[in-house]
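ligand=flavin-adenine dinucleotide
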Amino acid sequence: MAVTQARQNWLEGGVYDLIVIGGGINGAGVARDAAQRGMNVALLEKNDFSSGTTQAPTRLIHGGLRYLEHFEFSLVFESLQEREILLKIAPHLVKPLPFLIPIYKHSRRGVLLVNMGMLLYDMLSWNKSLPHYKPLSAKQVLEMEPGLDPDGLQGGVMYYDCQVDWPERLCLANALAARADGAYVRNYTEVIGFLGTAQSVEGVRVRERLTGREYELRSKLVVNAAGPWADAVTNLLTKEEPRRVLQTKGTHLVVPPFANAPKHAIYIEAKSDGRPYFVVPWVGTMLIGTTDDPYDENLDDVRPTEQEARYLLNEVNAIFPGAHLTTEDVQHTYTGLRGLPLQKGKSTGAVSRRSFVHDHEKEAGVRGLISIIGGKLTAYRSLAEEVVDHAQAKLKLPGVKPCRTRTTPLPGGDIADIAAYTSAESEAQARQYELQPSQIAHLIELYGTQHKDVLALVAATPALGVRLMKSRPDIAAEVAFAVEREMAVRLSDFFVRRSGLVTWDGRDEGLVRGVARIFAERLKWDTARTEAEIEAWRDERERLFTLQVPLG
Ligand code: FAD
């Protein structure tokens, strides 16, 4: 049954094998793995895919050097293995990035300790395709990054990890792959209750947030992949569930490249409190982050604050004396919540970044529910594999295949050599579509081989080849593609999670109206609806992605 029915995207009155709550990277990864194995899957996300923590990380696919300090060797090893896998299955989204760790006299982690850590990091990734680390003298560090403060510099190390410019698209690729494999995949669909009893979960009750329609979906197993909201979801079953998640808030700032800005990603200890943080070259800007503070306010309204910005800017100014950054330099900012496993007595930085698969049947006798607690973007695939293995061990569904996500490219990721592919495609396609080669390269970075589907829209409607912003390569066809093929239904879906254009703008009246027009044509919005959507986007843009600096 499991295999034959999996082609239907909607099981009318039927029973899903798996319902996944939460369309962040973990939920999307689980849905993708389970659907690919042939299970009947529903993936339900209350906002848009990746609109929770997954749209707010430092955008690194990394082992996590810092976790070695906490003896989390297996987590680092697993993450480094996953880094290699992601380079292969999503080469358009995940790319190698050189890092530099400058070590100062005041650094808590000295030259010897950092080198020992790097040796271990290399050993734990013995089979990697990336270069090994290199110890550096102070002189070499300054030759590589002349903008760094030379005062007290003792030396440093250079090493490689990876960057995913758009984790939002990595998540989307998983959700869309699940849908292509037959899963019922819905955004703006909130789980508002469970079916069954407090001891036996038999499905969920959902509300479509854009229409208000409510309905029920039955299942053999429910996977709670709601990240920081995981406790809120289990509370829908019974208020007696113990708290399992610790939420901590992390803010990032995006600034234009400053004088002598680094060419490498810089990983450094904050001068004020010794916390490690990053300054990362990212899509032509500098990404600075992150903070890490306990958070127990409204999980659905997390905003960056001036205090967080000042902390990060002061640190960058201290280490790059030529930067002179002020809050006015912040072009974009975003904030997310870590949903960490609650570990009493540990500081936020020391809490494990491991994930835990919590089977409610084993621990509290509640059948039909498992919760994912914690995790890292980097290790989402192996976590998904673990969850689906666990589900299959419980359900013993006939005909379900073994996991294949380790080797199957994500949609658009079927590219052996990304550099060769980009150079071959960009020249030829630019001529054919009268675009710039840099625009084709941009499309490949976002869509991989599916950039051809975006270009097919230009072939059908040449007006869709027009640039959305003078200073950016993005074209109008990407808006149409987001609505027609990528389940975008609100303007923020496009500006934040399909294109990332919010990083550069999202306020300009002409741009917003142009994007809204393409949505309106395809989704049949009338004038009143279009104006309401524009207003909703303006509000979200100012509230969540603009630094809250008091006037005066
Ligand atoms: P989420 O992305 O939050 O997804 C949960 C989803 O559940 C949300 O979209 C939410 O809307 C939905 N939901 C909640 N309730 C319901 C409901 N009732 N019905 C339906 N849907 C619901 N990891 C790395 O590997 N590299 C990094 O560089 C990195 N940097 C980070 C920096 C910061 C500041 C933070 C906060 C995290 C960072 N991480 C990083 C960790 C990584 O981002 C997270 O582990 C990952 O995104 C968590 O994904 P998730 O799917 O568990 O949670």
